[in-house]
Specification:
about 750 residues; mainly beta; 4-stranded antiparallel sheet; Quinoprotein_ADH-like_sf; Quinoprotein glucose dehydrogenase; PQQ_mDH
Length: about 750
């Protein structure tokens, strides 16, 4: 069942585009994990059972106690609802108004009418409940399910329904470079997913039995920071009838920069999409450099337009691939529009002959959010190609970097943008997917940031609906005093950011360790939040992994709560003058390709050359002691918080993660102490009153009571749970599922496990 199938389409593509390998696995997620990367698991300290990869017998025919999809989750008139997640699924009977122009049978001598092309009229969105049809659950990306069969009272009875293994494990040069971060979608009877190396897979949602797989044969050279595919997207063709080839298709972007569409029912490539189901996203980008340009997040689909950006490997050179965002026809794969922020009109239809999209501009590596009703798509942008030096940036880069941008998805034209950091030299790119909601009667969008601020904006205009303040008289430093902004916006409604560090916050596993960290604190430049870069060591707090990262937040509609997990640990950085970096032999990924075949390289910020700027950068991500490898600051290093959406007040805040797999020198302590570890991945909240989350580095999958923050149940995973979980229903039974794929940057064991849980059948 797990053997790779021969795939002539993929082989034909690879022969035609042998050089088409590109960049990365999602944002740099190099938070410290203080863990030995071993496969040995211990008994969970929070009433978890030992990991058992054997799936129990499941009675798929049992209807369970209730049809949880029949709850009142359609009530959207609260402050936290108000979206179209519970609308009917798209019609497949061909009578959708968008189907005008549908192909008709030709009569001899009569012209054949062509099918309509994107953009289409506004369509209905897929329903969340028994299905989980989007990466973020429903179309609003709230990571919420109306299912309520699993409750605080019975969650302790959860058992494994099945364990499926994708068979995608690192080999050869991929060793040490896997971070799958994958969340499936559930549609009908099937779970649809992508593996770390972009193998598309369908399995039965009740049993885990494999239906089909499609392997695009992505080469190892394409791996950037890590091999990642966070998810896939669905699109139902309004011109096709149920049972037609590619009536509903699965769409993914790959780390070698292809856009692929296959039939959701069979896994066969949609031949009308691009060339044999594939579109080459290198077109218009420039020289192909494996590992520099890649797609790791699922695309957004709005009115039949597939919208995607790509991750451009940070810190390499000012002359990096463009951060252009493009919209493609979901049926044909043809370019509908391109949004090049430096030349939006000139590049709307792609670059003129002989030119490329503007190099080095801010990119969107994370997940966009689709608004089918307005026809908008919301893009969380990063900063420019050189993260820690800005004086060479253009004015338009300064205007758009680290902003949420709303585009008209039918034309690619900007509607509005909202900037969270001015002249960003801290790598505070926007990593979280924004969430649609109704806020006090206004259609709104909620935006979390890596620096911890949470904003709620009018989704039509971008105007803030919650208070936004300004901090002033910020330090400018000695490197770029005329560039670093002396004031910055902050959310006055809610922030996850903690108080500035002091020497008393320095911590150590031993007194010697603590003394070493205190000495390093005194050596460092630190003037609080937004301390500017320096050639002397300086402290960046929060670090570049948040605050909030790509796992994003979840919203409990019934209880009016935002559930936000976060990291709380600094980076310890210093700029390296160009001549010193040259002496050290620090080269960009393109220079390495010319010299020795290139490759993805190491962690973000670890010896990044920043070619074209006068300084390279060295980052100690998640500042650790040089003596024991333990963090230099007090725990907790990560937590999870409930926020009252009507007031912005904290309801509860708990450390997330125990010390069971963490300890000095990478040796697991085996201690069940709730230390709060760095975490990567988000949560799912249920109408039943539970929040499910993996994310932490202790390999536990938890159920938390949403109203109180109390952990009620946990299970030991066979690999790291750095992925967003989902919830769905089959035959009246509610399932909760997580991908345990591990994460090399988080130093959790790598695996290929898809694990589903449910209550015992009657």
């Amino acid at each position: 069942m797990f053997a790779n199938q021969e795939n002539t389409h993929a082989r034909r593509w690879l022969m035609a585009t042998a050089a088409s390998v590109a960049l990365v696995a999602g944002p740099m997620t190099a938070l410290p994990a203080f863990a030995q990367e071993d496969g040995a698991e211990q008994t969970a300290p929070e009433s978890a059972e030992d990991a058992d990869t054997s799936a129990p017998e499941a009675d798929a025919g049992d209807e369970g106690t209730a049809d949880a999809a029949d709850t009142d989750a359609g009530d959207d008139d609260t402050a936290t609802g108000g979206d179209d997640d519970n609308a009917a699924a798209p019609s497949e009977d061909g009578d959708d108004p968008a189907a005008e122009g549908e192909d008709e049978a030709s009569v001899e001598g009569a012209p054949v009418e062509e099918s309509a092309s994107a953009p289409f009229e506004a369509g209905e969105t897929y329903e969340v409940g028994s299905d989980w049809p989007y990466w973020g659950g429903g179309s609003s990306a709230q990571r919420y399910t109306p299912l309520d069969q699993i409750t605080p009272e019975n969650v302790g009875n959860l058992e494994r329904a099945f364990v499926y293994r994708t068979g995608d494990m690192p080999e050869g040069s991929a060793e040490g470079k896997y971070s799958p971060e994958m969340t499936p979608v559930k549609y009908g009877d099937d779970l649809l997913m992508c593996s770390a190396m972009n193998i598309l897979i369908s399995i039965d949602a009740a049993t885990g039995e494999e239906n089909w797989r499609f392997d695009p044969e992505v080469p190892n050279e394409a791996i950037p920071y890590g091999a990642s595919c966070r998810g896939v997207s669905l699109w139902t063709d309004p011109d096709k009838a149920e049972g037609d080839a590619c009536a509903t298709r699965v769409i993914e972007g790959t780390i070698d920069a292809r856009l692929i569409a296959v039939d959701a029912a069979t896994g066969e490539p949609c031949e009308e999409f691009g060339e044999d189901g594939m579109v080459d996203m290198w077109e218009g980008i420039g020289e192909r450099v494996p590992g520099w340009y890649a797609v790791t997040a699922q695309p957004a689909v709005v009115r039949g337009v597939v919208v995607t950006g790509a991750q451009v490997k940070d810190g390499q050179a000012e002359d990096a691939p463009s951060g252009v965002v493009r919209g493609y026809d979901a049926r044909t794969g043809e370019l509908v529009w391109a949004w090049d922020l430096a030349a939006p009109e000139e590049m709307r239809d792609g670059p003129p002959e002989g030119e490329v999209y503007t190099r080095g501009t801010p990119n969107m590596w994370t997940a966009a959010t689709a608004d089918e009703e307005l026809g908008y798509v919301y893009l969380p942008l990063g900063n420019s190609a050189v993260d820690y030096y800005g004086s060479n940036r253009s004015e338009v880069e300064n205007e758009y970097a680290t902003s949420l941008v709303a585009l008209d998805a039918t034309t690619g034209e900007e509607v509005w943008h909202f900037q969270t950091v001015r002249n960003d030299v801290w790598d505070y790119d926007l990593g979280s997917q924004a969430t649609l909601l109704d806020y006090q009667g206004t259609p709104a969008i909620l935006l979390p940031s890596k620096q911890g601020d949470i904003y709620i904006l009018d989704r039509e205009t971008g105007e803030p609906l919650t208070p936004v303040g300004e901090i002033t008289d910020l330090p400018q430093g000695e490197i770029e005093p005329d560039y670093v902004a002396d004031s910055q916006p902050v959310s006055e409604w809610h922030t996850l950011r903690k108080d500035p560090l002091t020497e008393r916050d320095m911590w150590g596993f031993t007194p010697i360790d603590q003394l070493w960290c205190r000495i390093q604190f005194r050596r460092a430049e630190y003037e609080g939040y937004l301390t500017p870069p320096s050639t002397d060591p300086y402290i960046q707090y929060p670090g570049y992994n948040g605050g909030s990262d790509w796992g994003s937040v979840a919203i409990d509609r019934d209880r009016g709560l935002i559930i936000a997990n976060y990291n709380d640990i600094p980076n310890y950085n210093y700029l390296v003058p160009r001549e010193v970096a040259d002496e050290k032999g620090w080269k960009s990924i393109a220079q390495r390709q010319d010299a020795d075949g290139g490759g993805g390289g190491g962690a973000e910020g670890a010896g990044d050359p920043q070619i074209g700027a006068p300084y390279a950068i060295q980052v100690n991500a998640g500042w650790r002691s040089g003596l024991t490898g333990m963090p230099c600051t007090n725990p907790p290093y990560g937590g999870i918080r409930a926020i009252d959406i009507s007031t912005g007040e904290t309801v509860w805040d708990q450390p997330l993660g125990t010390a069971r797999r963490n300890g000095p020198f990478g040796i697991p302590s085996m201690l069940p102490i709730k230390i709060g570890t760095p975490n990567n991945g988000g949560s799912v909240v249920t109408a039943g009153g539970l929040t499910f989350i993996g994310a932490a580095t202790d390999n536990l999958f938890r159920a938390i009571e949403t109203e109180t923050g109390e952990v009620l149940w946990s299970d030991v995973l066979p690999a790291g749970g750095q992925a967003n979980p989902i919830a769905y229903e089959v035959d009246g039974e509610q399932y909760v599922l997580i991908s345990a794929g591990g994460h090399h940057f988080m130093e959790t064991p790598i695996g290929d496990y898809i694990i589903a849980y449910k209550l015992p059948s009657d």
